[in-house]
Task: inverse folding
DNA sequence: ATGGGCACCTGGCTGC
DNA sequence: TGCAGCCAGGTGCCCA
């Protein structure tokens, strides 16, 4: 999926098109996403206005009068703003039609995405309640990471991707942040020094911030709200670069498997 | 509590 | 050309 930078880029793209607008219709073409989408949304949503579009972790929160839509893009999902007359494409699953002829449409080949409607505080929804701090907000730094890592034997790369520890870091940016911090992805989380956690926290913030500026990373499916790809791919140091020379020391980048996911690293720069 | 593995699903690529 | 096998921006859940 889209990781934090891609979700944030999507948020910025759809927010300007949605805010203040009135929903005229909700069309559910395929309710079989990660969790079944409630067909009643077709009755519940029309007439409501969009107050704001927020992001928490990799979830988009679309605040309406009297409730919030919680949308997740899964691995391959994208939300785009389109003219209402645009024909349905393969893997288009739902559409929020707005006044003035535009609509927000969700496309997701793998259907790992989701859509929930809540009338209370969305941050208290079970999917969101246990999430860790935002990496670009207060409460995330090296001291925090070091504290959470005490005694943990899990590899630091998997630790960093645990959304209960810190949100938003997925498979691409975990490898990239560890490279920037010079930390070997297989090192036990509890055996990384506080000094190196300070470097790692700064690296996470830097790589996510830079990726947001570039509109995210497009590998395959991901497109922004206006259909354009993200341009951060050319700035990646290690992800999907196995066998190619390290951009700092020219040692070939290596690939390994951790928790059924690929990890990329430089065996010379990362210890 | 922690760690490890599987499941959900489709499509694109590789190699025989 | 056909097809099996493997891999892909995530994460909830089950088991030891």
Result:
């Amino acid at each position: 999926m889209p990781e934090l930078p891609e979700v944030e880029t999507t948020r910025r793209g759809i927010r300007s098109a949605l805010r203040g607008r009135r929903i005229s219709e909700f069309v559910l073409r395929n309710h079989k996403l990660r969790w079944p989408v409630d067909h009643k949304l077709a009755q519940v949503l029309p007439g409501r206005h969009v107050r704001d579009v927020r992001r928490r972790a990799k979830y988009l929160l679309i605040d309406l009068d009297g409730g919030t839509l919680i949308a997740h893009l899964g691995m391959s999902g994208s939300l785009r703003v389109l003219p209402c007359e645009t024909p349905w494409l393969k893997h288009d699953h739902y559409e929020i039609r707005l006044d003035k002829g535009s609509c927000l449409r969700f496309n997701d080949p793998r259907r790992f995405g989701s859509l929930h409607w809540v009338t209370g505080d969305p941050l208290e929804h079970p999917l969101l309640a246990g999430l860790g701090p935002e990496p670009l907000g207060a409460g995330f730094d090296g001291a925090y990471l070091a504290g959470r890592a005490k005694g943990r034997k899990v590899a630091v790369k998997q630790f960093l991707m645990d959304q209960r520890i810190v949100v938003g870091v997925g498979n691409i940016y975990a490898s990239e942040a560890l490279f920037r911090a010079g930390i070997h992805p297989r090192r036990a989380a509890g055996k990384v020094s506080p000094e190196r956690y300070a470097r790692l926290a700064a690296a996470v913030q830097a790589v996510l911030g830079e990726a947001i500026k570039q509109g995210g990373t497009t590998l395959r499916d991901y497109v922004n709200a206006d259909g354009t790809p993200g341009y951060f791919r050319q700035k990646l140091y290690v992800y999907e670069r196995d066998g190619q020379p390290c951009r700092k020391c020219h040692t070939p980048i290596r690939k390994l498997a951790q928790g059924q996911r690929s990890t990329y690293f430089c065996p010379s720069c990362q210890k």
User: Anything to note?
Assistant: Residues 142-265 of chain A form a domain with the Helicase, Ruva Protein; domain 3 fold (CATH 1.10.8.50). The longest strand of chain A covers residues 50-56. Chain A has a mean pLDDT of 96. Residues 32, 34, 74-76, 91, 108-112, 152-154, 158, 220-221, 259-260 of chain A lie near DNA strand B (CB under 10 Å from a C1').
